[in-house]
Amino acid sequence: MASHLKSMLLPNGRTELCNSVLPALLDCISDIAKSLRESQHVSQAGTTNAFGDSQLNVDIAAENLIRTALAKCPSVLTASSEEEPVERPASDGRTVDDVSPTSEKYTVAFDPLDGSSIIAPNWTVGTIIGIWDGASAIHQQPSEKQIGAVLGIYGPRTTAIIALRVPGSEPCCLEIGVGGSGTQDHQVIRSNVQLADPPFTTRYFAPANLRAAAESENYMRLITKYMEKKYTLRYSGGLVPDVVHALVKGHGVYLSPVTGASEAKLRRLYELFPIALIVECAGGKAIDPVDGEDILSRPLENCDETAGLVCGTAEEVDIAKSALLHA
Amino acid sequence: MASHLKSMLLPNGRTELCNSVLPALLDCISDIAKSLRESQHVSQAGTTNAFGDSQLNVDIAAENLIRTALAKCPSVLTASSEEEPVERPASDGRTVDDVSPTSEKYTVAFDPLDGSSIIAPNWTVGTIIGIWDGASAIHQQPSEKQIGAVLGIYGPRTTAIIALRVPGSEPCCLEIGVGGSGTQDHQVIRSNVQLADPPFTTRYFAPANLRAAAESENYMRLITKYMEKKYTLRYSGGLVPDVVHALVKGHGVYLSPVTGASEAKLRRLYELFPIALIVECAGGKAIDPVDGEDILSRPLENCDETAGLVCGTAEEVDIAKSALLHA
């Protein structure tokens, strides 16, 4: 794995990213998978009495594993997470003035364990990570400064998607098989994850926030059209598995619209930005369903901003955009 | 685990079931989980060139693990599977006249790995197993002769659902946390899996074969009603995770209707019967959407019969039944 990335990035001086940050994150994903596998009692989260506690423990374990790993990467200056949405030094006392051996400085923003509602029934869940150039993600141009994103996918196997868009290099999107015992185990499953071009043999749709269709004629009409046109439904309710489904199948559209009665729920920094980078690197689009703008076009004002999402196959995103923005 | 089951069943002389068949099946589920975890290259099944082969290998591995385990259980006379839908002796030379130490005789019918379409994107998949009294499942009354069913769920964890309805004992439905290293690792997560009674805070629906809605006004109208009434959508496309979601959340309705243009796809022996027993033992219903009859009411004529399915929370199954059978 490392050699593949290195060959693409080392000419641009991304030694720390390839040799330290990405391997550390993949090892974290392996460790989180192990922690989940051993947390049998989270399934009690579906019951009345134990709700909350066990589930929270898995979240916290994932959070701590990632924070500990980032603290050991000298180039990671700043970290923040969906569990604690404030940017702070990745390691006590580390400051913007500290210079790593290669002058690389990164900010990492992550959602340690996305999909808490489907942990109890033992459905696939995931981790979402964005990597930014510099000491902060706030007030930065996301399309330029977020140079990498990683998804961890915890299902029957443990897999990861890595997307990189480093200035001066071609964007890339890889699928990694994450091993059980450290970096040497990871293997590249597909070195070029790309959404397919038309024609499509099967069209997939993943309608999140479907209850919003009760209030939005546009959303209801769009869903009805998918049904009439015989799109195939796959919707787990986990952002990571739902997006990864499209990437692996080569086609799909994920929709999480915002209506008057249903607020935007997805965090821009911890969910939308990394997902958008990955989808774009795979040749797709990711837009805000409220104004149709690219998710990555507007800088962040603060860490806990939220928005809706339409992403996936470019042609499908355009169709959904017209349908949802239709006056 | 074993002690819990034993205390419920041993009074009825089910020594082999509790001490041999169920432990062997749980160990199989643990082994299949391990095999899946190590099969990173199945994700290539989503690509053009490698489609089929790798995926098939995982299916065959699961099939072989279960057949090998059953051959070692002296009380299992007959086995058949979705991969090879013909009843034959579970072990070479074993016959109906062989009598196990406790005179128990079982037929086991199984789908080794259900959900092949979602293996590549690393979504949760499962194993489905039915256990019958006697030397055959054919021409037997399913509601009486299928006395047990087991689901293996391969997700971030490995879990199992066991339902037993042995004459003379109370029906039961358990959730098991399956360990990584043999029987001693398994633990009971919930000893009484039950669908909830109304009122429901969240209502879930899982509409399979949704493309049939394009041809069935009744199905389209029912789906639209779920959306208008703000049911929550969860549909992975895997029968096992979809049904287990309802069991763990305590509410849900799974629908796989049959229309003129879309044939019945679910195998009665390998999928519908075990799922129906589990749902009934959890207090729910499982019916054939064509005639509204219980799935378990009609005997099997041959091993590869198929049908549709509506199952889950009893009240929801009744609502769906009226809607789908509406003239």
From TrEMBL, chains A, B:
Keywords: Carbohydrate metabolism, Hydrolase, Magnesium, Metal-binding
Bias type Basic and acidic residues, positions: 86-97
Highest taxon above the source species: Eukaryota
Domain annotation Fructose-1-6-bisphosphatase class 1 C-terminal: ranges: 201-323
Listed InterPro entries: FBPase_C_dom (IPR044015), FBPase_class-1 (IPR000146), FBPase_N (IPR033391), Fructose_bisphosphatase_AS (IPR020548), SBPase (IPR023079)
Tagged with keyword Metal-binding: yes
Pfam families: FBPase, FBPase_C
Molecular function (Gene Ontology), one example: metal ion binding
One GO term describing the cellular component: cytoplasm
Cofactor(s) needed for function: Mg(2+)
GO biological process terms held by the UniProt record: fructose 1,6-bisphosphate metabolic process; fructose 6-phosphate metabolic process; fructose metabolic process; gluconeogenesis; sucrose biosynthetic process
SUPFAM superfamilies according to UniProt: Carbohydrate phosphatase
Pathway participation: Carbohydrate biosynthesis; Calvin cycle
Keyword Hydrolase attributed: yes
Fructose-1-6-bisphosphatase class I N-terminal domain ranges (all copies): 20-168
Chain intervals for the UniProt region annotation (Disordered): 78-100
Family to which this protein belongs: Belongs to the FBPase class 1 family.
Protein name: Sedoheptulose-1-7-bisphosphatase
Taxonomic lineage: Eukaryota, Fungi, Dikarya, Ascomycota, Pezizomycotina
